[in-house]
Design brief:
5-stranded mixed beta sheet; ROK; Nucleotidyltransferase, domain 5; about 400 residues; WH_DNA-bd_sf; Arc Repressor Mutant, subunit A; 14 helices; ROK family protein
Length: about 400
């Protein structure tokens, strides 16, 4: 390629990106603001803004007149956050959640749907998922043609290039042919990522780890999984296994990847079978020996000693998990997320004290406040990152030919 012919085009794209970055970061900006921020000339800035308006990525607002100001007010420009939308999907074993967000990241719609009992066949799961996407778009009051990218989190290991790592028992539940469904059917880029890694993106973006560059998030519901951000970068590893919890089988006092919710349920049920007749039994009732995690936590909060001992065992076990993550990745903050996050606050004192026995400079431990929106929020962030990186190649809906 002749560099002399491409240089003006590359320079213009660089300048367009510079102006876009400023506009995305502020509510609005005048030409003078953009000149100060970019170092470009006024003529260049105005030409670039007109170009971005024509492309659909910027809009012009009328500046208010100040006092007895004469003449035309300064032109004021905004990033057009309604130029398109992204989808964030959280695809679990039992449920799919969908968020629709505009290009500022504001959620404008969503939906949730259960998969068939025991997960269902791939065709069934695909139908449920696509119906949930349609319902979310309807809830947002927008259409498929406005979607610029889809981010999707799955409860499986995913390689750095977005492929579900083969050989996993759960792979058929998540490898649903959606690249063809979304890509060929709608023209949507689909980005697939492990759910714990998306949880880390979400926490760093909008959670208790906002802005933290060295962060670990542990999804601790049924099974443990972690997402690691090191120096602001999400870690994947050679095959997407960075942060995987397989090594817990080697850790004394842990032994497997069972999460907080599963342990509370199993140990609470075992207590009932062994004749426990206290707070857990009162909440569960006389007709079953199956305790839910929620009722075990409630019984502990009400002072039941057996439930309290179960939570103490879980907290001490989790401290060993945190020590492994701390030793390998040295984060400043570890966030506990997932279905049990709200209840896990009760475990923090013991986990924090125990961790200090294993790690010389332990990280801060916190509990996520994002609830079930944690993974789909991370999926939205993943999709937004793609749109921001490819904005000059994408075409907003209002610029597409009818």
């Amino acid at each position: 390629m002749d560099a002399t012919t491409s240089t003006p085009q590359l320079l213009r794209r660089t300048n367009l990106r510079a102006v876009l970055e400023v506009l995305r970061a502020v509510p609005s900006a005048t030409g003078t603001d953009l000149i100060t921020a970019t170092g470009l000339t006024r003529a260049t800035v105005i030409a670039l803004c007109d170009d971005l308006i024509a492309r659909g990525w910027a809009i012009e607002r009328e500046s208010p007149r100040v006092g007895g100001q004469k003449g035309r007010p300064a032109r004021r420009f905004e990033f057009n956050s309604a130029a398109g939308y992204v989808l964030g999907l959280d695809v679990g074993i039992a449920t799919v959640r969908v968020l629709v967000a505009d290009l500022s990241g504001a959620v404008v719609g969503g939906s949730e749907a259960p998969f068939p009992r025991h997960g269902g066949e791939p065709d069934q799961r695909r139908r449920v998922l696509t119906a949930a996407v349609d319902a979310a778009l309807a809830d947002a009051g927008t259409t498929a043609s406005a979607v610029l990218c889809v981010g999707m989190g799955v409860a499986a290991q995913v390689s750095g290039d977005g492929a579900i790592t083969p050989g996993q028992e759960v792979a058929p539940m998540f490898d649903l042919g959606l690249q063809k469904e979304f890509g060929d059917g709608h023209g949507w880029p689909l980005l697939v990522e492990n759910d714990a890694k998306l949880a880390a993106l979400a926490e760093r973006w909008r959670g208790v780890g906002a802005g933290e560059k060295n962060l670990a998030v542990i999804l601790a519901g049924e099974r443990l999984g972690s997402g690691i951000i090191e120096s602001g970068r999400l870690l994947h590893g050679a095959s997407g296994g960075a942060g995987a919890m397989d090594a817990l089988a080697l850790i004394a006092g842990v032994g497997n990847e069972d999460g907080i919710a599963k342990l509370a349920r199993l140990w609470g049920s075992a207590a009932l079978k062994d004749g426990h007749d206290g707070g857990i039994r009162a909440l569960v009732g006389p007709d079953t020996d199956r305790a839910s995690a929620r009722l075990v936590f409630e019984a502990a909060a009400a002072g039941d000693p057996v439930a309290g001992e179960i939570l103490d065992r879980i907290a001490r076990r989790m401290a060993r998990v945190l020590a492994l993550v701390s030793s390998f990745f040295d984060p400043r903050l570890i966030v506990i997320g997932g279905a049990v996050a709200a209840s896990a606050t009760a475990l923090l004192p013991v986990m924090t004290a125990e961790l200090a026995n294993y790690v010389s400079e332990p990280p801060r431990i916190a509990v996520s406040d994002m609830g079930k929106m944690l993974v789909p929020t991370g999926a939205v962030r993943l999709a937004l990152d793609y749109v921001e990186d490819h904005m000059l190649e994408l075409v907003p809906e209002l610029r597409r030919p009818v």
